[in-house]
Amino acid sequence: MKKLVLALLGTALLIAAAVAYTVSSRHDPADAEPAAPLTLSPGQLLFRDTATGRVGAVPLAEPGKKPQLSGLKCDRFAVAEQTAVCLAVQPGTLPAVTDVLVLDDHLAVRHTETLPGTPSRARVSPDGKRVYWTLFVTGDSYAETGFSTRAGLYEVDTGRLVKTIEELPVFAGDKRYFAADVNYWGITFAPDGNRFYATLGSKGKTYLVEADYRRYRGKTLRENVECPSLSPDATRIAFKKKVGEGVWRLSVLDLKTMKETALADQRSVDDQALWQDDHTVLYGLDNAVWAVPADGSGAPRKLVDGAASPAVTG
Amino acid sequence: MYIAASRTSDLAAGTDRKPALKRVSANVVALGVVSLVTDVSSEMVTAVLPLYLVLGLGLNPLQFGLLDGLYAGATAVVRVLGGHLADRWRRLKAVAGFGYGLSAVCKLGLIAAGSSVAAIGVVLAADRTGKGVRTAPRDALISLSSTPDTLGRSFGVHRALDTVGAFLGPLVAMAVLALSLGSYPSVFFTSFCVAAIAVLLLALFVRDHPGSVDRAAVSARAAFGLLKRSDFRRVTIWAALLGLVTVGDSFVYLVLQRRWEIAATFFPLLPLGTAGVYLVLAVPLGRLADRVGRWPVFLGGHVALCLALVLLCGPQAGIWLAVVALGLHGVFYAATDGVLMAAAGPLIPRDLRATGMAVVQTGQAVARMLSSVLFGLAWTLWDLRPAVLVAAVCLAAVALAAALAKPVRP
Predict the structure, then answer these.
(1) Across the interface, do B180 and A7 touch by the CB < 8 Å criterion?
(2) A140 interaction partners in chain B (CB closer than 8 Å)
(3) pTM (two decimals)
(4) For chain A, which terminus, N or C, has the lower number of CB atoms within 10 Å?
């Protein structure tokens, strides 16, 4: 009898503690700051404020300035021309479900797609006509910790949705590449809105794939390239190169000469790089946004603390 | 006073019709409830951990998978050590309690670790150590709290209760996420509170089996000596051999997903299907094992898995075939997981029960790890379906050999 009372009392106390903790975490003091009306006017560096999850902005010329925070919460964010894309995981969904929000130049939602998975990468094509993303799709607790990626895109002007580019016919040399475990991640479009690049992962290897969107076919260009990002002049690709298990180094590949240049940051960078212009590459690392020269010279420079997923308006 | 103690008189009176839960010792039910509550706690964390690492901390999941796999092997050693110390000190409950307690504290450790990848790695390793330490003493307690002829049923009841917890965990995690507006620390804290409740229940309601201490009988030499007992050695070896040709869960679900093009949204429902069948059949198959023999039921489970694999690779791809294959996968679990412990229990002296169980479990676990490496290799070389087919043929061959060898006397 005494044991039963003890058990009930202890259980009640512990449940009360859990509920109190859970309810008290609803109030986030950082959320108190009022939302600033951000637009996609030129010369800004936008990013995800990691403390609040809100999209913030600073002038690109003065990144040290106090950022303005919008009311929009995103896990990945990207812009080009008059279009922005925000990937936001829906709270309380297991397994995760992500909202892909297509936004206009005042960050108002124009279109929403809801897809299974956890946000990983997001981009807008240079012409602002397509948004594309990569999501991690997970099994659940009973399976091993296995992940696969799913890369898809949405045509802003026609409303066409490609949930995954897994069906893209890919050629390695003259031969069509077939494998059951094909994964794609990190798409990047050329300024013409047709040519695009992506990572193809299969059988423990990764390939750079160059593809034609209208003809919908691709070919492998090179091994060991992940998360490609095409320069504004469309001549070079910044990417993360695997140098060890779980260790990546930012590099730039010249598409004409196929020559690789390692960038100055010696640390492991796990992000899809972003070209600020033809000379500088931006990326998120250790809870901050960094910039490094694209020719391998110089040193990494911290732009904004407490920030991830950089985007620049031009 | 254990309910099982009055069982013999029930039998004598010819009243062999009580519900299964009442026909097992109160200690087994108490251990089952502790496992249920603990599983709610641990499955809550497992459900949100990938999300937390990717979104909260910006880790690459592939990187995390690497981290995770690193520690899987460590538990094998810890398991034998935990079993041995429990026997040595004659403190089965205390050692199991330490394991449960350690895993509970690790939930707070996840909050304390913050965004440090190294600290998270350490916490996850400690959590797995806790799980490794507690398993053998707990199964020894279940075994020692049952009469030899109801072992299968006892393990069935325990595993069924355990599975209920696994079902509830993700639901509780979802409720906490919804209530806290997506706060992962809230999930970890609640998980800690739930785990602490389990430790409290263990302390209050589970009885130890002190027995007479014969230290000489529990020396390290005696533990190794276990493998000199031919019947125990044969069960250990056959269990490991079967483990070596067993295709891991994630691969089974992967084939199901590939062949039936199951949408990613429904993918997590596949393990729930297996768990559901396991839950329903754990007790009936445990009772069957008590009646017709534990080894035949254990092998029968492997036959079920073999049939499931054949269905998965077969020429037909109807949806009902997928359902049947998933059902057979559940039968495999219900007929093997607790039943092996029930089969091994009587072959181990009472003084060495936890050690012996740890040895059998570790042999099986190491073999399964090796199997998933080999299977992954075969998949890369030959593609998924041929690999599964080869695995099914190997499984059938080893199961047939094990049936002919009859390592356990009926």
Answers:
(1) no
(2) 46-47, 170, 267-268, 271
(3) 0.77
(4) N
